[in-house]
Design goal:
The protein is of the alpha+beta class. The longest helix has 25 residues. Among the domains are: about 110 residues, Histone acetyl transferase 1 (HAT1), N-terminal domain (Histone Acetyltransferase, domain 1, Alpha-Beta Complex); about 130 residues, 3-Layer(aba) Sandwich (Aminopeptidase), CATH 3.40.630.30. It has a six-stranded mixed β-sheet, with helices on one face. It has 14 helices and 14 strands. Keywords: Acyltransferase, Nucleus, Transferase. Its main location: nucleus. It holds the Pfam family Hat1_N. It comes from Chironomus riparius. It is found in: Nucleus.
């Protein structure tokens, strides 16, 4: 029996994406990128069993995102003599996230790509230009957009945790970034770069509260300022609308929250209520209201920005100032713990019993202090990184 370790492959290493602009890109070693995660496709351990030297190539036409899919390997465990009944995993489960079909014939894919690239143009309304990038806004009703969006949305399973496809309705807005480039013949072409989806929630009595649900810039275009420009464009679009209360974000990733904090801190640091004198007095309702009125930033987010900006002016060598700052941050970090304790006490005061499991799930006062210290240290280190950028 062969060494079975040779038949186990990490999915994030096996899968390779490449955006194809022209035929010669297929043989170009540059331009490939790997997924950040694969558990939503290949299971929690993110491994594929049963193949040796496994390669899964996914080529996408740069503009319309049509897909070519190819799998290769040198050996399969099913074909081995005396394989003890072992069966290889279904490597083709990946195709379940390919909407609208895919190509397995490379020549057919390339011919289609060359034809479509000549006519492919961005969907919707152009909102801004940034260097050689353009950002457009679409609705679910934008002609032919939903099929394109389904292909673009396929990437979220590899780069955004706990992802799921959306159900299109009239309350969705989509902000899509494209790169405008010249092909080898000097013709203008467009490549898909990334997108954000925003849902327009109702805000009583007659307003809306946009919530950013998904936000993705494809790896070849990251660290070029496109993500920041896309977020700016979304915020500017909704700030101009009088019926918008504030802008929220759904389950922001660490990278996106950093981008958001940098953007918002640059705005709020110039408001009167965020002056150095006011920052040292503590977070106030005036700060929250001014952030909301001027930039549609919600109170929870404006509180975080207050903490970041206050750290920037706090003399950490001054024992009193630094202690006061730490207490301010820990007050927010400790809110959930205190709420759980209050809820538990309220239940007990009413004569109900609390299960042993529920009691054990709540840390003791000593454990909470230790956890809070660790959370604070991580938060301050993170805030310092944001301050370096602004």
């Amino acid at each position: 029996m062969a060494n079975l370790e040779n038949f186990v492959t990490e999915a994030v290493h096996a899968v390779k994406f490449k955006m194809i602009r022209e035929r010669q890109d297929v043989d170009n070693a540059d331009g490939c990128f790997s997924p950040e995660m694969a558990h939503q496709i290949y299971g929690d351990n993110e491994s594929i069993f049963g193949y040796k030297d496994l390669n899964i190539n996914v080529y996408c036409s740069a503009g319309s995102l049509d897909i070519y899919y190819d799998v290769s390997y040198s050996k399969k465990v099913d074909d081995l003599t005396n394989n003890q009944g072992l069966k290889a995993d279904n490597v083709h489960v990946i195709t379940e996230v390919f909407p609208n079909g895919y190509y397995t014939n490379l020549e057919e894919f390339l011919n289609t790509m060359e034809k479509k690239s000549k006519t492919f143009e961005p969907f919707g309304e152009r909102l801004c230009e940034y260097k050689n990038f353009e950002i457009y806004m679409c609705e679910s009703s934008t002609p032919n957009f939903q099929q394109y969006h389904a292909r673009l949305e396929s990437f979220i399973f590899w780069f955004i945790d706990a992802s799921s496809r959306i159900d299109h309705d009239e309350k969705w807005r989509f902000f899509v970034a494209y790169e405008k480039y010249q092909d080898s013949h000097g013709e203008t072409r467009y490549a898909s770069v990334g997108y954000a989806s925003v849902y327009l929630y109702f805000s009583y009595p007659d307003k809306i509260r946009p919530r950013i649900a998904q936000f993705l810039i494809l790896p070849p275009f990251q660290r070029k300022g496109v993500g920041n420009k896309l977020f700016q464009t979304i915020c500017q679009h909704f700030r101009s609308q009088s019926n918008v209360t504030d802008i929220t974000v759904e389950d922001a990733s660490e990278d996106f929250q950093r981008l958001r904090n940098i953007h918002d801190a640059r705005l709020l640091k110039n408001l009167p209520s965020y002056s150095s004198v006011n920052l040292m007095k503590g977070f106030s309702t005036k700060m929250a209201q001014e952030a909301k009125d001027n930039f549609k930033i919600n109170p929870k987010q404006s509180r975080i920005i207050y903490e970041i900006l206050r750290l920037g002016i706090t003399n950490t060598a001054n024992r009193v100032d630094y202690k006061n700052y730490r207490l301010e941050v820990k007050k927010r970090l400790n809110m959930n713990y205190l709420k759980e304790k209050r809820d538990m006490k309220r239940v007990m005061d009413r004569g109900f019993k609390i299960s042993a499991d529920k009691k054990l799930s709540l840390p003791s006062t000593e454990e909470n202090i230790e956890q809070l210290d660790g959370m604070y240290k991580e938060t301050e280190e993170y805030y310092q990184g944001v301050l370096e950028r602004i």
